[in-house]
User: Fold these one by one.
Assistant:
Number 1:
Amino acid sequence: MTLKSLLEGELAQMGDFIKLLKEEQGALTAGDTEALEALSATKVALVQTLNRSGEARNVVLRSAGLENDRPGVEAWIRGNPKDLAVQQLWNSLKVAVVEARELNLLNGKLIAMRLQHNQQTLSALLSTSATPQSNLYGPDGQPTQLSGRRIIDAA
């Protein structure tokens, strides 16, 4: 494998990862938990693939006597200034990595907001006022009786 072909593969995989992060963002915004479950499994597999690709790149770099990751690729580019294809691929990959990082951070913030909202909703439903009779729902998730007679029983 050449450095060029490895970078082409990584760039394509990173494009797939960015697309997946955008889909995840849409599912988070919509509250689509089923889609999130499916995306989560795909995301884990894609991250593993990206990690393997990075390690394959590092093997090529080490075999050329260079360091791993960014320092190694940049040293390779300095040593091969006429190989514009590798330069372009590397620059595109760096841009894609920044985009993926930003999307992932945003998705994390969306998850945190959704969790906070869910916690606030749960706290409201399980309010811990002085009288347990004022709770709408008990710890088991079942409605509590606010009085001896429930409105729903009268229907």
Number 2:
Amino acid sequence: MPHIELRALQDDDRDPAFRAVSASTSAWPRATFDDRAAFDRWSDDAKVDAHVIVEDDAVVGLAAALDVDGEREILLAVSPSAHDDAPTEALRLLTSHEAERPLYACVSVDDQPSHAVLARIGFVEHERDGDDVVYVLPPTLE
């Protein structure tokens, strides 16, 4: 498996991150952008903590956490060219970085690969919202 890491989104990462998000087949409603300007506005929002997913030395996606209606939500978009294990490893890294629980994720009901990745990390279905499924990573007992 290649080396996967997250790093804060930097100006030099914006083009490859936008390309990776645009190429991603994942359907996370809060990671859909019509153009680069919309991506920049979203990633510059103070509520968004955006990280690029780096596989070896190449940017292959975007992982982010943001506040939505007072709750912490995560999202992930990974280029189809990334290694098969990249989404799971990126999500594992993101959830370890985000200490707040519960932690939520919202994906399209039809996005089976994202459902599988969330389940591998321990997210469980919380509710259905139209064409989306809301998942939660509940607090753990220590």
Number 3:
Amino acid sequence: MRFPGRELLVNVHSLQLRGEPAGDAGFEVETLAPLVVRTGHDARRDVLVTNRTARAEVLISNGELSAAVVDGSGGVVGRFVGPHCLARKGFEVGPQESRSVPVLIGTASVVPELGYGVPPGEWGLVVELDTEGGRLMLASSLRITITP
């Protein structure tokens, strides 16, 4: 958001979540440690991605998966809004295997009423799993604590 007028500068893509539920597609994402991030800051944390299908999948990223902070109704309230590296990096997850994958968590607010950073408290985190085949899945059962 611009200061002091609080005009939102993110595109519509930042405010929406697209894709099928990861669980329905045979994927699970879980935390390796509690997710704690300071308000208005970003962090890189590893999550465990499990492929319950019978085929290998390659998760496409720029070195870390994207994520969005969501409220209790699933609406996006925060993201990483800085520049992204454009290098393409794949993480292969074999059938019936699990793999630790880094995720970028941003707590910059995309809701002007909340201010410039997502307020401290308990929130949800949706991790986007983008596959080499063009399939987008959303894993949304993670909890994140945002601190002052």
Number 4:
Amino acid sequence: METNKLTADTAQFSADTTADRNTTTGPALFDAPRAREALDKAQNGCKLYGALGATALLAVVAVASSGHPVNTFTWVRAALLPLIAVLLHRLTVSASRGSRRAFERVSSAAVVMPVAIVGVDLIPGVCPLWYAVVQTVCMLPVVRIAFLTRSPALRAAFPKTR
């Protein structure tokens, strides 16, 4: 009977260790106060980015309804970016629960998004200058998320496995 309990405990330990190695970090790492604070700030940054993105969409609607022309690119971008904010927030929430994969995705997206979005907006003729400025302001919380995900607290909470 003692052998069966030992076998069951060993099997559970192996399952927990495998799960931790593949999808999560140990609870002591991402629950550290500094890591928790950085993850909370990243979640708030996602919310702010979503609010700014929704405001940008409302600005496009206001400009279009006032009779000014708004190109297709601006409409599509204005509609997609608030949706991306929801996805980014969901990934950040998963990371705050210990998902290393979600953390890596948030970390990568937070670096790539501002460069890609502002870079495309700066191409002459793609969008009006006012919209490029609005998109740049929308990217400021994402830039903050990029810095937060590279902070020492989160690098320690989600160490590289290779």
